[in-house]
Amino acid sequence: MTPLLTHLPHDSVAIPSADQADFMITAADLLREQLRLTDWHTGALYAEGVATDDILRAEVSRLVVDVERFADDRLERCSLVGMGATYVKTTDGRPLRALSSARRAELLDRYYWPHHRALDEAAAARLDRFGRCVILDAHSFPTGRLPTQVAFSAPLEIGIGSQPGHTSPELQALAEAFFRARGFVVGVDIPFSGAIVPNRFFGRDPRVQSVMIEVRRDLYMDEATAERHAGFGRMQGLLKEFRAELGRFAAT
Full-prediction pTM beyond 0.85? Predict the structure, then answer.
């Protein structure tokens, strides 16, 4: 175990058979939603060769439960477009599921809360052992705008998400400087804002630091097929370098 934890909330494509009946769209449309919403290959992109106890990955597709959202829709901005912790709208605004409050609670109990308990425990273990925990919240974003994105006009390649009280100026500066020095167009809190913080420590313990990194998908894959292309190896190598810098930051 190291002080650096890599969080992979959106790279799973698993939709258990017991949960497939909830969806109101065709199988072909569901696949299209997965193509747009999955953070394809981010496990290999950010965490190739990383010890398993330094990675926390969501068990199911975000179309089943999105562990990156607040469970309470009143606190979750994305719920305004039907894409809170349990999505009920597609990316083009059509009905996706009609979930009763009991069914929603069942999904959260099965997938959401266990993930967040594991996140709490992973952070607590690092605080006990190292006195700090740094989370790399690992994502990608499509070239076509999603309804949950913050609007932007620049040809953005890397997005950096920050969380007040848990993304120190030094951590944000490290991330910005790393990618800008390598020629990327970088935005802060665009196309998405925030960074995951374990519930137990959210707003309470600044020793838990977090930064979200969003890589534009066409830099490493074909968005029409989800297949990796020649840019994947370069981006994977750069993110390995970045993780090493974060590791040094976390250890000091």
Answer: yes
